[in-house]
Design brief:
Low-confidence stretches: 1-26, 307-354, 358-367, 369-380
Largest sheet: 7 strands, antiparallel
Number of strands: 24
Oligomer: single chain
Distance between the termini: 46 Å
Shape: globular
Radius of gyration: 27 Å
Number of helices: 8
Structural class: alpha+beta
Strand content: 25-35%
Strand order of the largest sheet: 1-2-11-4-3-12-13
Helix content: 10-25%
């Protein structure tokens, strides 16, 4: 397939027609990734000329951009190699037996070479996927640790839970590590076949469409032709939706070199958007590149949200300690000397929202039924909700609850639905509430935030049947009953 087939496939996708080049036009123009820090969007743009080579310079005057039909100012354009920034690489290594040992060894040699070439600003993490997904090493610049982790991988598993691995990998866009580069990519070698993850290609495509993080996929398959084409097409499409790139494998060392070059050849475009407002809803960013009489346009969904932080009205830890110590000192002096010492104490009161008043239901006197009369007790008003764990410590667990007003989900066993073994989940993490005929989800000020279909929740948001919610390390699918 290669890059040419990649462009041809995108042209056929009507919902992403803007990602493809006009018929007969050579070259490439694609938005690879976008980050947002109010009031600036940073777009990583991949450009190739008619010869398939990246230009040495990109003129800001040749670019234009809009988001949700709002015009943006092109403030600057910088080749990524001159930006001084690094890349956070997440490598997903297939350890199923569908990868032949020879190909696996070639892959390991290619990744080892990649590790040796990491720049000081780069970080890398390595995870394997087969019957389960396992993290071998978290993001680090320690090359010895990366080499050692890669040596522990071997193709031994019977199944390939590809889509589960990709879904979990999508969360790297939410990482807030201080030393983690904003340029983040997923690199994967796969035949595109998923076995037993519980997801479909459409499921994963929707996640990456709403919250893009570029996937650079090398399609390598020994399956029979009909299956090979089907699965590689699906992997190709997911890579396209994510803002990444698909290359059909032929010679793995050269393929990995081509992928690394594609990741680093991008231009960093600064877009000023002083009027942009924070929103958890994805908005279409459209950019146009004009050279001479030819124009090329690309679109990518952008979420103008920020990672979850401590709530603004939450008392800082240092002030809690200071208030506690000051109170104790004052009390000790008063008791020990009999002298009341006035110590100015700044008391910070965390405002708690009052719970909604309990509705008063008029009661009627209980009348015993007459003999032979069947009394039917109507079911409690509300909506039946099923929460099924798709990934996490309790995968496969299902809870059915009747949502009459609201339910709280968290680590605390007192919650309506609790996952006490997930240490990354807050005690009270998120809330599901009934709003007329609709169900809404709201983060309850959790430490790590709540994701809805891969997008960070900023405000209360309506959910649909089949949506996914991630809290901590647990992801649940929400299904509505009758």
């Amino acid at each position: 397939m290669g890059i040419r087939h990649f462009s041809a496939l995108l042209l056929a996708l009507s919902c992403f027609a803007g990602r493809a080049l006009a018929q007969g036009e050579p070259g490439r123009f694609a938005i690879s990734q976008v980050t947002y820090q109010s009031p600036v969007l940073m777009a990583y743009v991949d450009v190739l000329n008619q010869d398939g080579q990246p230009p040495t310079k990109l003129n800001p005057a040749d670019l234009s951009a809009t988001i949700a039909q709002r015009s943006l100012k092109i403030a600057s354009v910088t080749p990524f190699s001159q930006s001084g920034n690094g890349v956070a690489y997440l490598f997903l290594v297939d350890v199923s037996k569908s990868i032949a040992r020879t190909a696996f060894n070639q892959m390991r040699t290619a990744v080892d070479s990649w590790i040796d070439g990491l720049t000081p600003g780069d970080r890398m993490a390595i995870s394997t996927f087969g019957e389960q997904e396992r993290q071998l090493v978290d993001f680090t610049s320690n090359k010895n640790a990366l080499h050692a982790a890669l040596q522990r991988a071997a193709p031994t598993d019977k199944l390939t839970k590809l889509y589960l691995a990709l879904q979990n990998a999508s969360n790297i866009r939410q990482r807030t590590d201080a030393d983690l580069p904003s340029r983040r990519v997923i690199v994967i070698l796969s035949d595109g076949k998923d076995e037993g993850s519980g997801y479909t290609a459409d499921d994963v495509g929707r996640i990456f469409q709403q919250s893009p993080i570029p996937i650079y996929a090398i399609g390598f398959s020994t399956l029979p032709s009909p299956q090979k084409n089907t699965y590689l097409e699906a992997l190709n499409r997911v890579a396209a939706l994510s803002g990444g790139l698909f290359i059909e494998g032929s010679s793995l060392p050269q393929d990995y070199q081509a992928v690394r070059a594609a990741i680093r050849r991008v231009f960093l475009v600064r877009l000023d958007c002083p009027g942009c407002q924070l929103s958890s809803q994805s908005q279409p960013l459209a950019m146009t590149y004009t050279t001479g009489t030819a124009s090329r346009m690309d679109r990518l969904a952008v979420s103008l949200s920020v990672p979850a932080q401590a709530q603004a009205n939450e008392e800082p830890w240092w002030r809690q300690i200071l208030s506690h110590i000051t109170w104790k000192i004052g009390l000790s002096l008063a008791l020990g000397t009999g002298v009341v010492i006035a110590i100015p104490v700044v008391v910070v009161v965390k405002r708690k929202e009052k719970p909604p008043p309990t509705p008063i239901t008029p009661t009627t006197p209980t009348v015993p039924p007459k003999p032979g009369v069947i009394v039917i007790t109507p079911p409690a008003a509300g909506r039946s909700i099923e929460l099924t764990v798709l990934s996490g410590d309790e995968r496969g667990r299902a809870n059915q609850v009747n949502l009459s007003s609201n339910i709280v989900v968290g680590r605390d066993k007192k919650c309506d639905v609790s996952y006490p073994n997930d240490l990354e989940m807050s005690a009270k993490h998120f809330e599901l509430s009934l709003a007329g005929d609709h169900v809404e989800v709201q983060d309850l000020g959790s430490t790590n935030g709540t994701l809805l279909n891969g997008a960070q929740l900023v405000t209360k948001q309506r959910i649909e049947d089949g949506d996914w919610i991630r809290a901590g390390l647990t992801e649940v699918r929400i299904n509505f009953g009758a």
